[in-house]
Amino acid sequence: MTRTLYRGGRVFTASDPAFVESFVVDGDRIVCAGPAAGALAADEVVELGDGLVVPGFIDAHAHLLMLGDALGQVSLTDARSLGEIQRRIRAAREVSGGAVRGRGWLFDSVPGGAPTAAMLDEAVADVPVYLDANDYHSCWINSAALAELGITRETPDPVGGRIGRTPDGEPDGMLYETAAQQFAWAHRDATATDAQRDAAVERVVAAYLASGVTGAVDMAFDEYGLAAFARAAEQGAMPLRVAAHWFVGNADDDAENLAQVARAAELAATATPGVDVIGIKLILDGTIDACTAAMGAPYANGENAGPIWPTERLLPIVAAADRAGLQIAMHAIGDAASTLALDAIEHAMRVNGDRPRRHRIEHLEYAAPETATRMARLGVTASMQPVHADPAIFANWAAQLGDERVGRGFAWSEFEEAGAVLAFSTDAPTAPHEALANMYVASTRASALEPGLPAVQPHRALPLERALAHATRDAAASIGAGSDRGRIEVGCVADFAVLDAEPFAQGAEALLTARVVRTVIGGRTRFEA
Ligand SMILES: [Zn+2]
Fold first, then answer.
1. Tens place of pLDDT for every residue, the chain, 529 residues?
2. In the beta sheet, which residues pair with residue 53?
3. Can you name the residues that pair with 92 across neighbouring β-strands?
4. CB neighbours of residue 193 within 10 Å
5. For the residues of 410-460, what is the DSSP string, one character each?
6. Where do the H-state alpha helices sit in 24-183?
7. Which of 204, 263, 297, 342 has its CB surrounded by the most CB atoms within 10 Å?
8. What contacts 24+ positions apart, CB below 8 Å, involve 162-171?
9. What's the alpha-carbon Rg for the chain, to the nearest Å?
């Protein structure tokens, strides 16, 4: 085994002490960290220079195949007008043989915030166009795509979703929530080839390694991902540590829902190559941006949305998954949804009694004032995404609520103060996957998407030290890997990233220009700039 001494830099440990200058890796583990490291005999010495070493980032909530797919699509997040969106899809049509796929567009880039198929037909009418919204809770398609999916005025809305319609009842080109899942994305999944999925896995691995990410949690895993990660592992092409929550959709039938939980339990009980299935994922509501998150009080427009999972369907699923020892992750953006999630967990605890459990709530963008303490008491992890509070996308979010609730949005410190585990992630591809950009938003509340914008609610920014710990140490804890991952500490696996800048000394702005120059997983350098 090779023993390597890393020395002469600044090392953030996410442990105590928070900083050391050197550490030693032997095989796949850290065997010494701190002043004594220099005295240990080593086969190899790496000089760290002026940069910073951090524990490898663990993207505790992401969608890996979708991200890999998105990295190969037309990017529309910075296309801030309809004309620009049309220009980009026209250009993509010129080089694409089939359908045009794009992602990341924002509602406020479209006139009146109301996209239509006709707007896309003006640019591309001869092949289907599928454009996933920035939050991936809706899909905007052209007339050729409506025809390809067979959606007509007679097509009913699916449970938990809606087909956008003109006043006279014709489909208008928008698919919301489960309508996007069951039509656009199901069609994409069913028609994608293994080769396309393998290419997506390759892109996501390369993108993460270059960002200092050493582990990720796939937050809506399915049979396609399972097969794709197995193929990558067989080819020795899966260096990331990947955990996964199996997606359980509400089939509006208890037996069908329970069968999905049983499949997750079966996968969790067996070794699956390239990925570790640890739990299930339930989507309880939509997003505040699209007014589909379930709120305790209505939106500014007077409307509200109910949860995607009604209580009577949710309780048996959560109880069954808890009984099977699965981790339950529930997407809950609105306060009514997170309250429902905690009710379901309390119900499971009542019926299943004392047992080890590590459940989590995803996003928590606007939670009820008592939610943080309730989560700490129940041992539920708060899984939050600083990049979702980026000022570039905050205005639309705030306008939908339109009242004093805006001041308690993305209240990360409430969960810290209550004593809940707070794990930071990116939810890529709903936001950029770059860990350093995420840390910039977390530690400034300023924009990584449009760096000139003023910070929003800067008093809610966290010190960089705490933000980094939530994205490493606490992200590891959120998946039950806290004993030997997420820190640079004796006994931990040697997963870390070396940056070419030192943002603690240089200021948070350095996070926007810093580059990852080395990513090490289990003692092996997997990326070097
Ligand atoms: Zn997600």
1. 789 999 988 999 999 999 999 999 999 999 999 988 878 888 999 998 889 999 999 999 999 999 999 999 999 988 999 999 999 999 999 987 789 999 999 988 999 989 999 999 999 999 999 999 988 889 999 999 999 999 999 999 998 889 999 999 999 999 998 899 999 999 998 899 999 999 999 999 999 999 999 999 999 999 999 999 999 999 999 999 999 999 999 999 999 999 999 999 999 999 999 999 999 999 999 999 889 999 999 999 999 999 999 999 999 999 999 999 999 999 999 999 999 999 999 999 999 999 999 999 999 999 999 999 999 999 999 999 999 999 988 988 999 999 999 999 999 999 999 999 999 999 999 899 999 999 999 999 999 988 889 999 999 999 999 999 999 999 999 999 999 999 999 999 999 999 999 999 999 999 999 999 999 999 999 999 9
2. 11, 498
3. none
4. 8
5. T-HHHHHHHT--EEE---TTSS---HHHHHHHHHH---SSSTTSPPSSGGG
6. 64-70, 82-95, 117-121, 143-149, 178-179
7. 204
8. 171/117, 171/146
9. 23
Which domains can be identified in the chain, with CATH numbers?
80-191 (3.10.310.70), 192-519 (3.20.20.140)
Edge-to-edge order in the sheet of strand 29-33: 29-33, 23-26, 3-7, 44-47
- Cα–Cα distance between 174 and 180 in angstroms, integer? 8
In angstroms, what is the span from residue 202 Cα to ligand 1's centroid?
Answer: 20
CA of residue 24 to ligand 1 center, whole Å: 36
pTM higher than the cut 0.85: yes
58, amino acid identity: I
Distance (Å) from CA 40 to ligand 1 centroid: 44
Centre of ligand 1 to C-alpha 9, Å, is 35
Q: Which two tokens stand for residue 308?
A: 């995607």
Handedness of CA 53, 55, 58, 64 (dihedral sign): positive
How far is the centre of ligand 1, averaged over its atoms, from the C-alpha of 61 (Å)?
6
Q: Contact at 8 Å (CB) between 473 and 57?
A: no
